[in-house]
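STRUCTURE:
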């Protein structure tokens, strides 16, 4: 049974504003989404847009505290919040938050991102994914995979997010499909071909020559061995397969090892298939991981009185 609303979590990105009304256990009671991404909101209008979006919830449930995360806390957002260095858990992330008051008196807490300063050649960063990892749980040493445009592989160790690495797999795939000669001729609208996807995964597992593999999608089409229906899925298999190969080579997993896939952006099943090809056993997180993680940081940021309200 879901309890009474006690807080609001805002995941404000480049293309949309998503809000979740949550109870004291982090369960999602209600959700809303608008097209007010940070790229379309005029400077100085963030508060007005946020208050308008949340007005029905504030009217019905009072001045609930609000946790804001995502690109809204970047230098292109509302308030830039500095990255917190690894290793970090809820306490470290809470110390990096920035607090404001909304016109109705609600606490607005901007959550920081996370930085792995030991990554080379430059520090790696994430903004938002750390809350999903915290929400999934930091009680055991595990590798966490978060699929996305910029996929993250993170290691949880000693109750904190110890390190992580980003792979720009989704961005590469989108560039290839939409702007390259290699993938020209792919069926439109797109066709998902499971066998062609696994074909691409297996090719990537066998060869680390990424640029050569990508050109094989073109030559396969010319040779009549790769159809227009297969092309998109084959290329997706190549790029995700290369992510897994590189993650393995970087020490994020070993064959017959275990990892957890966290997130829900439509890629989880594709990553499960890739893990199967690479002999990696996977489990999955929960839909409310982001909410629970954001609330864990919010509790710490607002102190013991709030923590008692959110057990």
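SEQUENCE:
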């Amino acid at each position: 049974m879901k309890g009474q609303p006690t807080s609001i979590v805002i995941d404000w990105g480049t293309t949309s504003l998503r809000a979740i009304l949550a109870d004291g256990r982090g369960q999602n009671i209600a959700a809303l989404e608008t097209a007010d991404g940070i790229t379309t909101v005029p400077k100085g209008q963030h508060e007005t847009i946020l208050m308008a979006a949340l007005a029905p919830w504030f009217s019905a449930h009072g001045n609930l505290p609000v946790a804001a995360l995502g690109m809204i806390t970047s230098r292109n957002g509302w308030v830039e919040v500095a990255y917190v260095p690894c290793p970090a858990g809820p306490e470290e992330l809470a110390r990096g938050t920035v607090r404001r008051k909304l016109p109705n008196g609600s606490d607005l807490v901007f959550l920081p991102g996370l930085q792995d300063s030991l990554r080379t050649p430059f520090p790696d960063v994430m903004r938002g994914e750390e809350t999903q990892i915290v929400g999934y749980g930091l009680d055991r040493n595990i590798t966490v995979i978060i699929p996305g445009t910029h996929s993250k592989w993170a290691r949880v160790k000693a109750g904190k997010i110890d390190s992580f690495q980003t792979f720009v797999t989704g961005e590469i795939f989108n560039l290839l499909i939409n702007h390259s000669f290699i993938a020209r001729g792919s069926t439109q609208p797109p066709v998902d071909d499971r066998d062609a996807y696994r074909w691409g995964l297996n090719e990537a597992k066998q060869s680390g020559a990424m640029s050569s593999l990508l050109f094989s999608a073109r030559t396969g089409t010319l040779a009549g061995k790769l159809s227009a229906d297969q092309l998109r899925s084959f290329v997706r298999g190549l790029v995700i397969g290369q992510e897994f190969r590189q993650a393995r080579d970087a020490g994020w997993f070993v064959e017959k090892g275990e990892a957890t896939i966290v997130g829900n952006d439509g890629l989880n099943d594709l990553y499960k298939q890739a893990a199967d090809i690479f002999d990696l056993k996977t489990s999955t997180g929960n839909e409310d991981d982001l909410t629970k993680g954001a609330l864990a940081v919010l509790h710490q940021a607002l102190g013991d009185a709030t923590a008692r309200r959110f057990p």
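REMARK: The longest strand covers residues 5-12.
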